[in-house]
Amino acid sequence: MSNTPSPAYDIDTAAIAARIDRPLVLVGLMGVGKSTIGRRLAGALGRSFVDADEEIERAANRSVGEIFEAHGEAYFRDGERRVIARLMEEGHGVIATGGGAFVDEETRALVLENGLAIWLDCDLDTLVERTSRKDTRPLLKTGDPREILFNLKEQRGPAYSQAQIHVVTDDGPHEATVARILEELAAWR
Ligand SMILES: Nc1ncnc2c1ncn2[C@@H]1O[C@H](COP(=O)(O)OP(=O)(O)O)[C@@H](O)[C@H]1O
Ligand SMILES: O=C(O)C1=C[C@@H](OP(=O)(O)O)[C@@H](O)[C@H](O)C1
Ligand SMILES: [Mg+2]
């Protein structure tokens, strides 16, 4: 494989891609940037990208909101577990999960064993602002989004913290977050 660094980032992305050959799996709360950052990270590394929520929607032929409405959260979680197991098996380069996926014990064990989990994290104000841009997240429609996100942050923190890599994002451009992930990957043994 060529050792030419990606021109967009001041880091040897080809070396990272060659050394870390398991799926990079983005985990963290709703709005932290898993889907948008994941796509850009895959581009930087010259790897394939897949979004688990999009795959669930494709398999069910319904949106996430419609699945929650028609069948409830437990049904969605069953489908999510199955879809992520399949995506891990298929060997994608970068996988963006939905915020609840890594909380599932089975999914978490599978990702930690066969992939490299990257926990994207940011402050509550940023999450509230980013998730307010779209009304596609059923869990945030059941009450005050800030309170729901605050509680989920508390509840899910212990699961997310098991990810091998932790990156705190801020209000900067997407590229700055991608660059920070690349630095962590370059330093990862
Ligand atoms: N680092 C970032 N800087 C600025 N905006 C971001 C960043 N990451 C994500 N966003 C924006 O926040 C929103 C939610 O991002 P998304 O990738 O859908 O999050 P997730 O998949 O984690 O729920 C999108 O509008 C996205 O463009
Ligand atoms: O946190 C969660 O439980 C969820 C997060 C969503 O994905 P994003 O984290 O990509 O918004 C989506 O899977 C569903 O609405 C449930
Ligand atoms: Mg997403």
Automatic annotation (TrEMBL):
<keyword id="KW-0547">Nucleotide-binding</keyword>
<feature type="binding site">
    <location>
        <position position="137"/>
    </location>
    <ligand>
        <name>ATP</name>
    </ligand>
</feature>
<feature type="binding site">
    <location>
        <position position="53"/>
    </location>
    <ligand>
        <name>substrate</name>
    </ligand>
</feature>
<comment type="similarity">
    <text>Belongs to the shikimate kinase family.</text>
</comment>
<keyword id="KW-0418">Kinase</keyword>
<dbReference type="InterPro" id="IPR027417">
    <property type="entry name" value="P-loop_NTPase"/>
</dbReference>
<feature type="binding site">
    <location>
        <position position="35"/>
    </location>
    <ligand>
        <name>Mg(2+)</name>
    </ligand>
</feature>
<dbReference type="InterPro" id="IPR000623">
    <property type="entry name" value="Shikimate_kinase/TSH1"/>
</dbReference>
<keyword id="KW-0808">Transferase</keyword>
<protein>
    <recommendedName>
        <fullName>Shikimate kinase</fullName>
        <ecNumber>2.7.1.71</ecNumber>
    </recommendedName>
</protein>
<feature type="binding site">
    <location>
        <position position="99"/>
    </location>
    <ligand>
        <name>substrate</name>
    </ligand>
</feature>
<keyword id="KW-0028">Amino-acid biosynthesis</keyword>
<dbReference type="InterPro" id="IPR031322">
    <property type="entry name" value="Shikimate/glucono_kinase"/>
</dbReference>
<dbReference type="InterPro" id="IPR023000">
    <property type="entry name" value="Shikimate_kinase_CS"/>
</dbReference>
<keyword id="KW-0479">Metal-binding</keyword>
<keyword id="KW-0460">Magnesium</keyword>
<comment type="subunit">
    <text>Monomer.</text>
</comment>
<comment type="function">
    <text>Catalyzes the specific phosphorylation of the 3-hydroxyl group of shikimic acid using ATP as a cosubstrate.</text>
</comment>
<feature type="binding site">
    <location>
        <begin position="31"/>
        <end position="36"/>
    </location>
    <ligand>
        <name>ATP</name>
    </ligand>
</feature>
<comment type="pathway">
    <text>Metabolic intermediate biosynthesis; chorismate biosynthesis; chorismate from D-erythrose 4-phosphate and phosphoenolpyruvate: step 5/7.</text>
</comment>
<dbReference type="GO" id="GO:0004765">
    <property type="term" value="F:shikimate kinase activity"/>
</dbReference>
<keyword id="KW-0057">Aromatic amino acid biosynthesis</keyword>
<feature type="binding site">
    <location>
        <position position="77"/>
    </location>
    <ligand>
        <name>substrate</name>
    </ligand>
</feature>
<keyword id="KW-0963">Cytoplasm</keyword>
<feature type="binding site">
    <location>
        <position position="156"/>
    </location>
    <ligand>
        <name>substrate</name>
    </ligand>
</feature>
<dbReference type="Pfam" id="PF01202">
    <property type="entry name" value="SKI"/>
</dbReference>
<keyword id="KW-0067">ATP-binding</keyword>
